[in-house]
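User: Predict the structure for this protein chain, please.
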Amino acid sequence: MISWYVIIKNVDLKKSSDISEEDIRLLELYLQELWRWNQKINLVGVSSYERLVDELLADSLISAEFVPEKGTLLDLGSGAGFPALPLKIIRPDVYFDLVESRSKKAAFLRHIIRILRLKNIRVVEKRIEDAKKELLSFYDIITFRGIELVTGLSLALPYLQKGLIVTFQGKNYKSLMTQIAPWINNMQLKIHQIKEYTLTGKKRAILVFSRSF
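Assistant: Here is the predicted structure, written as structure tokens:
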């Protein structure tokens, strides 16, 4: 079997290079459990160990520079836990709410939280539209991955005040931003930062939004 440890150690995480040996151990255990569950339940659509690390884990950890050492984070449509679980592992003092409506994926999230013994993290098994009573009024960071941009921003907005929305986009993000610019202005949003990078030869970008008022 390919060593998860070796793969993770060789991923270029740049500003996330402060990952500890204990973090590596927890990330390795997370990936092993995810791969085991994925043989029975379709949690992620990748077909190899390398793609799981390069396309999902590394993508999640690259966003760590936008997550403070302390605070609150809301992850929308958490699925198998990307980006929330890798970020939680390296930001243990941040409180996390993971919203996932699909029961099998929510069960996996609760399972991995338990075996990793993660603290100050909760799975809310509901659609975000129905979860208001369970969630905080506002969060410092809101993340989503694999959700259409306008849809994700619309779902995140009620929980955004002074914080940031961190989104994961592909190479065509510039044309997308041009198309939705009027909507963004109307919603009193602005681009806080754009981080471009390349994973497995594919151009990607993290778009970070904040309130414009």
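The first helix runs from residue 4 to 10.
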